[in-house]
Amino acid sequence: MPGIIPHRHCIVCGKAIEPEDVFCGKDCQQKYEEDKKRQRNYMIFMFAMLFGILFLMMFSAR
Questions:
Q1: Position 53 in a domain
Q2: What's the total number of domains in the chain?
Q3: Which range of residues forms the domain containing residue 32?
Q4: What is the reported pTM?
């Protein structure tokens, strides 16, 4: 397409940025890291709950 300069979009807010960048600024990068950490903690919690329920089911069947 003529007239459109090469660019990418910030993976957090969607603003147009340079092709070699991933985030538009430090705020978006920090928000991404916080969200990633929150998702990791949620997955750990869910696996712990799953194993807890399985443990209770195994030992309460007696």
A1: yes
A2: 1
A3: 8-60
A4: 0.76
For residue 19, tell me if it sits in a domain.
Answer: yes
CB-CB contact of 12 with 28 (8 Å): yes
Dihedral sign for Cα atoms in the order 10, 12, 13, 14: positive
The verdict on residue 3 lying in a domain is: no
How many other C-beta atoms are found inside a 10 Å radius of the C-beta of residue 34? 10
Handedness of CA 6, 12, 13, 14 (dihedral sign): positive
E strands, 4-59, are: 8-9, 16-17
Q: Per-block average pLDDT, block size 10, for the chain (62 residues)?
A: 85 94 95 98 98 93 64
C-alpha span between 24 and 12 (Å, rounded): 9
